[in-house]
Amino acid sequence: MIIGTKPLLIFFLIAGLVLIVGSLSHAYGHANLISSDPPKGAVLKSAPERITLTFSEELEPSFSTVYVLDSSQNRVDNGDVVFSKDRRSMSVTLPELKEGVYTVVWRALSAVDGHITAGFFPITIGNVSLPSQQWQEGASNVAEVPSQPTPWEVLLRWFTFASQTALMGSIAFQFLIWRPCVRRIRSIGFENVWDDTKSFRTPQYISFTIVAATTVTWLIWHVYTVSPSSLNLETFSRVLLDTRFGNIWILRITILGIIASILYVYARSEGKEGFLASLLMVATGALLLTTSLNSHSAAATQSGILPIVSDWVHLLGASFWLGGLFQMVITISSLYRSEKSREWIANLLAVLIPRFSLLAIASIAAIGITGFFAAYILLKNFEALFLTSYGVTLILKLILIIPMILLGALSQFKIHSTLLRTFSLKAAGNFLRSIKIEAILGVAVLLTVGLLTSTPPPLTYVAQTQNQLPTQTQHQNQQLVFTGVVDDVRIELEINPGYVGVNNFTVRLSDRWSGEALPDIKSVLLEFTFKDQDIGTARTVAKLAGEGVYTVAGGYLSLPGRWDVLVHIRREKSYDVMKNFEVVVARSPNASTQSQAMSWPVAATTQADPFFSNLLLTSSVALLGIAGLFLRLAWRKSQLSWRAVMKEYSASLNGGVRRQAEDEKGGID
User: For the segment 298-317, what is each residue's pLDDT rounded down to a tens digit?
Assistant: First the structure.
């Protein structure tokens, strides 16, 4: 018994309704630092007893840590890192410390999605050297720039998503679309229609092999990421047994073993195809679920399992549509090249196209509704959609999906209509050309998915808080100044006083040719990375202080040595501009006293835009209605197609001439 299409369509419609009316919650995705005690950039009269950091997600204690460095890069904490009961906070105690600027360095492995986050911030104890410029009060609400994923990580995720999508899609296409269509065509007399088993088994075996290879590679990558200096059996054992990622990996490799067994038995069995097909689809669906368990949506714990179910339905929809499309290209190409199939390929496509359209429409509806849900819990507002790497990547994904949908509509309403009128090989060739272009776009879509899942969602914004510094004395400044030109922008970075500790950072922007201030600057962000030791990255937003002048103060250069200071300029009407400056800082000379205040960026949760949320909800309801309408149209067309095929076959039996005058002219090279 081959699985029917109707139960699947009903499942997608019910899932869509559940996701629309279900409770909503926001997810972080990655273990982001949301608070610290003492606060970031705090100036204290004496050393605190303990440094406590609180994160947005549960941490893996085996691979998360926090420590404190002095200005000579020596570790000064007591090394007794402990975690709270919910494992969202970690802390370390401090001994008595002398006056100076200290760097709190942290590294966190999320127990939810397995991503590593790291960073640092300074705290000041006692009297320290300070810049002479007085920093003004105020707040900033510009999104923080997330760390960019590495090309290798994006490529690995792309292979993972592409292979498991192709595997699930091939199985679904074979048993939900192909086999029922072949049986139906044979039932009216096309006895010479043959089932191209090789065109299914080879892609399934290849896809399975790639999925298994990427699964093993992910384990190696993850172990190297969490502990690059100790890539040994003990570390592998700790990751597998002591982390959520490891537990899910063991589950995934077990499911792969089950799938391999089913594929082996299926290749050698007869008479049990229906049962094995159902078992194979269930096992492959469980494989996709392991991906959802480590996704960004898995971080939305306040809504229970709903975000995970949503992500899983999203993956299922993508697999049925894109993976089925890939398999259809392979199968139809194989048949089209064969001389034996030229008598009946047009009749088969006349029945197959509307049946696949039913599955594709339901899948697109599921993808759209779950995508809106994910946008709500991960983005929250239009600013995050248009001004962050995650949002822009999501827009790129949508841009690629739209022409795929249009090509699908072309195949359904134009090419298929021509096929029903002519039953010609040329119309079959046009359909093959169309789905090949769709498949190429589908590969590009999966590449954006690899980039999207590697990029942390934009959920923390930088806000400015005031910390009152004690009375200090001003020292003689060395004032570091750097200049650079990128495209039409001249960038000048001034660091004052230019020593370890608290500095004023001034960015001056002007037109490269005229020297005038640029009018279209949206925001200026600074990113600090210490090159002599891996302690993560700190980011802040510079505030407008005058025409073309942006300033911010803080203890970002908290250690002596080499630093990379990246100036990231966001523009209204042009592409972003980025310029990196290498800065070498030394310890500051003796200081005298002067009153000073400084601001320091702290993480604050992004605010949900009610209009954005309502628009997503309205779009979900509209998409559900449109999908229902097109499903009805596709179902009616499938019935009309079947009657047209029977009429064509009846005409051929009565001596009618098959309308294939252009068969020899048509075709694909």
Answer: 766 555 678 888 889 999 99
